[in-house]
Fold this sequence. Notes:
By secondary structure, the chain is an alpha/beta fold. It has seven helices and six strands.
Amino acid sequence: MVPTVPVYNTQGEQVGEMTLSDAVFAAPVNTPLMHQVVVGYLANRRQGTAAAKTRGQVRGGGRKQWRQKGTGHARQGSRRAPHWKGGGVVFGPHPRDYRQALPRSLRRGALRSALSARLSEGRLKVLDALALERPRTKELAQVLQHLALGDRRTLVVTADPDANVYLSGRNLPDLEVSPAVDLNALLVLRARNVVLTRDAVVRVEGVLTR
């Protein structure tokens, strides 16, 4: 069944309907695939620069603390052994690469599943247009209020990078703004509601139906 959704203006009034691509917005929801891609996105964000020095890397420790026998102390070879204060770390972290390969087919499949899930849950809305003459957080917040989304984590997707919309939304703690070219499954699943402009829907469908 081809999904059809109402189209709203910035005042929250329905001004029409839009037929969505069933290949993008009515695809089977593949939960394991979405999980795999989200884990990959989060892993690829990690810098992997955490490090701790081993006993061979800390400074000092060249001299034996005391002679091997006759002192009554336990034998010691270096004051930089792990059990000494200032000594090396035994199983500490070392720089590594956490990156996971995410082929394009996986990324696009997960995005289709995420968009289809949000639409089936009734958490996806389409705006006729979203244009701000200048950065104005209050105006964008009013648009969300008119759509009854003011107190829920929301993702707003524009067709092209829009500086005015981005600057207006960055001060709202529950709002994230993304152009259609940067849309991914992590952004969609992290948001409770997704709002796309009519042009953004066309852009997303153009990519995901190739």
